[in-house]
Design a protein that fits this description.
CATH superfamily of the largest domain: Butyryl-CoA Dehydrogenase, subunit A, domain 3
CATH architecture of the largest domain: Up-down Bundle
Distance between the termini: 32 Å
Shape: globular
CATH topology of the largest domain: Butyryl-CoA Dehydrogenase, subunit A, domain 3
Largest sheet: 4 strands, mixed
Helix content: 40-55%
Number of domains: 3
Strand content: 15-25%
Low-confidence stretches: none
Order of helices and strands: HHHHHHEEEEEEEEHEEHHHH
Radius of gyration: 21 Å
Mean pLDDT: 96
Number of strands: 10
Structural class: alpha+beta
Amino acid sequence: MFLTEEQELLQRTVRDFAQTELKPRAAKFDQQEFIDADILKAMGELGLMGICFPEQYDGAGMDTVCYAIAVEEISRVCASSGITLASHISLGVNPIYLFGTEEQRQKYLPMLCSGKELGSFGLTEPNAGSDAAGTETTAVRNNGSWVINGTKMFITNGSTAATAVITAMTDKSKGVKGISSFIVERGAPGFSAGKKIHKIGIRGSNTTELVFENCAVPADHLLGKENDGFKQFMIILDGGRISIGAMALGIAQGAFDEALKYSKERQQFSQPIGNFQAIQFMLADMATEIEAARHLVYHAARLKDAGKSYATQSSMCKLYASEAATRTCIKALQIHGGYGYTKEYPIERMFRDVKVTEIGEGTSEIQRMVIARNLLK
């Protein structure tokens, strides 16, 4: 894969950080169900928490390809850290950068891009998953404020984020054209993180409900224009799918790394199992799918950087990379045999982590719908 000198330098830097700092602690994060604060701080100091945002907001001023590289390298050893980073950037920070006023940007972006605080995004609800237009959370004007009521579900960084960009129905009569977005700060009266959600994978990632009970936010916390929320989050998800594709790619590469290493070390019938054609064919298939996924992910990122249409390609890269990653993890576990089914080897964690990439930010079925719809325009 062709990379610029800047991108290669970033790749080496993040890979070294991931291998030395994250890999030895990834199993711990999975077991304790949270990521140690010093790791998030270190990612901030490396510039990763604001990697693709301008330096005037304490970002690193890099491109989308660099962002994809960072998510891939982090996810290669710790998917929980990868999704924490990806959700923070794509969902927590990007809406404020794209749709916020300059005053909102100046207020929130420096603390988020520097990694001093985390951001989150509240779209999914108990009764609104793939049907994101089925938002039931409401926001009603009252004495110069917006009063929000409702519940958000499966929110990454939910209880640890300083800000949540959330969607709420502001005009039910307009359906999807009556949804607006708001910035809600941690500690706002009536706003709380609900129950912690215990997951089979990406367990180190903080995932909770967000609960709004007569939560009053100032009028100037409206993000963008009133009733533009649906249009906004469709744009946000297009970009976010590149990051989930990169996360899936990283998990797949990590699983392949482990399988390749194991196939050289594991002896059966007086020889390494990598000598057997059955293992060789699995490795060949895995490597080919990973390479194809990498081209799709980086192509979508380059289209975005070039200011070209990338919605179809972002769905394609997310769809293919996530499903290829799942197939890769299954093969990697099979190569490990019985040991792959134990916590003695990291492949069992990767096997649990990978499935979410086919679900979050639009299921594989939704991606196929988006791709087909765009093809048939």
